[in-house]
Amino acid sequence: MNARPPSIVRPKVMGIVNATPDSFSDGGRFLAPAAALEHARRLIADGADLLDVGAESTRPGAEPVSAETEIERIAPLIAALRQETDIPISVDTMKPDVARAAMAAGATIWNDVTALRHSPASLSAAADLGCDVVLMHMQGQPRTMQSEPVYADVVGEVTTFLAERAAAALAAGVARERIWLDPGIGFGKHPIQHNLPLLAQLGRIVALGFPVLLGASRKAFIGALDGGAPADRRLGGSVAAALAGAAAGVAAVRVHDVRETVQALAIQHAISQAALAASPNR
Ligand code: HH2
């Protein structure tokens, strides 16, 4: 038992701010701008390193929202947040016009669940904006993606897809250091057959050499593994997934429950440091 224990780097914690009327986990409680702002302040006080603001639900079966509506929902919120905090703000949108409006309001990260495939203008818009971009894997479209996801080798296919999208972003002029990758837990994936291998082999995506964002908070696979627990009863599973992500070397976790996640990651990090200090091979 002389093996050196792994040194676990604490990932950044991205708090989710939903400005949608139909988000699956917040039930639209944060639609009103004042309430969304209040919620964002709470996440910052709880220790969020980043905020992800979204106005179009990607929940399976959710209806699409127009760019105008998205901009109305997120731009004032981002501008208000920018007045009172320096923490990086990301915008969760697939539309270049919305990303542009969000950056003008003070966001610096474009979180795109379509990995810049939604519009032919997406790749060049990301390059022009010069912002960070999160390229996420999704099979199918949000409305129908959970109907029958099929993979021969889910981890291999997701890894190859992300490498290809990173190459496409680079070719379009996005700077290497701006690119993040995300396996897209729950996006066109069977809750257990596809999400679990991805969570178990996150290291293969980390090995591509880009920062990885993991979004597993309150997702369906937790309910599937816990007797059908509803979204608001998935805190333990969400924290467990964040810890697994940290152990695999992800750079950030996207979560609803910031305080609990920050605490769990801090304790995991402290224990890993203590294990290193006690290691005979130090
Ligand atoms: N998950 C959701 C939305 N955006 N973005 C990235 N990069 N990774 C994810 O895993 C991810 C994401 C879905 O979660 P939530 O925001 O809670 O629900 P909704 O889709 O209703 O906004």
Describe the protein in words.
The structure is a single chain. The protein has helices at 33-45, 67-84, 96-105, 122-129, 154-172, 195-200, 202-206, 220-225, 235-248, 258-277, and strands at residues 12-18, 50-54, 89-92, 109-112, 132-136, 179-182, 213-214, 252-255. The protein is an alpha/beta fold and 282 residues long. The protein has a single domain, classed as Dihydropteroate synthase-like (TIM Barrel), CATH 3.20.20. Helix 1 (33-45) links the parallel strand 1 (12-18) and strand 2 (50-54). Helix 1 crosses helix 2 (67-84), helix 2 (67-84) runs parallel beside helix 3 (96-105) and helix 9 (235-248) crosses helix 10. The structure holds 6-hydroxymethylpterin-diphosphate. Residues 16, 18, 20, 23-25, 54, 57-59, 92, 111, 113, 134, 136, 182, 184-185, 213, 215, 254 line the site of 6-hydroxymethylpterin-diphosphate. 6-hydroxymethylpterin-diphosphate (HH2) binds at residues 16, 18, 20, 23-25, 54, 57-59, 92, 111, 113, 134, 136, 182, 184-185, 213, 215, 254.
What is the strand and helix layout of this fold?
Elements: E1 12-18, H1 33-45, E2 50-54, H2 67-84, E3 89-92, H3 96-105, E4 109-112, H4 122-129, E5 132-136, H5 154-172, E6 179-182, H6 195-200, H7 202-206, E7 213-214, H8 220-225, H9 235-248, E8 252-255, H10 258-277
Parallel strand pairs: 1-2, 1-8, 2-3, 3-4, 4-5, 5-6, 7-8
Helix pairs in contact: 1-2, 2-3, 3-4, 9-10
The protein binds 6-hydroxymethylpterin-diphosphate (HH2).
